[in-house]
Specification:
two-stranded antiparallel sheet; single chain; 1 helix; mainly beta; Maltoporin, Chain A
Length: about 220
Amino acid sequence: MFVVERDLQQAVQRARERRRRKRPPGSGVFVNTPRQDGNQLVRGWEADVSYVINNDVTIGGSFGRVDSKYTYFGSTAPEAIGRSVNGISPENGSAYIKYSPSSGVLKGLYFNALVTYVSFHADAKRPSPATRSPSRPGTGKVTVTGHTDAWKLRLPSFTLWEFGVHYRLPRINAHWDQEVSLNLKNAFDKYYLKTSALRGDGRGILLSYQLTHGGSPRF
């Protein structure tokens, strides 16, 4: 009984292998594997600048632009070709100022202010659905016969402010520095949507302690 069952299993396996060999590309027998991100062409640039006004004050900023387009989206959303990639902000920028007294009673303290800008961007959801006709046998191609304009929706831009106060505590020894910081994030409690289309964090206060090894010089 065991020999007969084993022979039957081997015969079924050989038959499956023969059927697979008889299915050449283009036969109309294929498996669609949707790719949720698609192929993308990304071009852009970024610039950073900083300037030391004096021993106590430093300012700086950065700005970048990204032009990201879908070049292929398979059978999941062929109509997405040429559209902006979801969840990618085309423009981002920030500016900061840092005040670090080098003498006087405030020595050891330093203050900073940071403003961040994120431009409008496509919704993080995948490209809007479209009406498709059935695939033609032997081609695996999908014909788009209609679509909505939901892909044109954009999440609004936003600007966030952050302020911080930091104090360098006395050095533990020649190799260990310590610092305590108090940061106010989203200082004006602005309502905004992140690039993921989820609601951003409201105003928050963060108290942190940092221990650094290396004996970095004091500024």
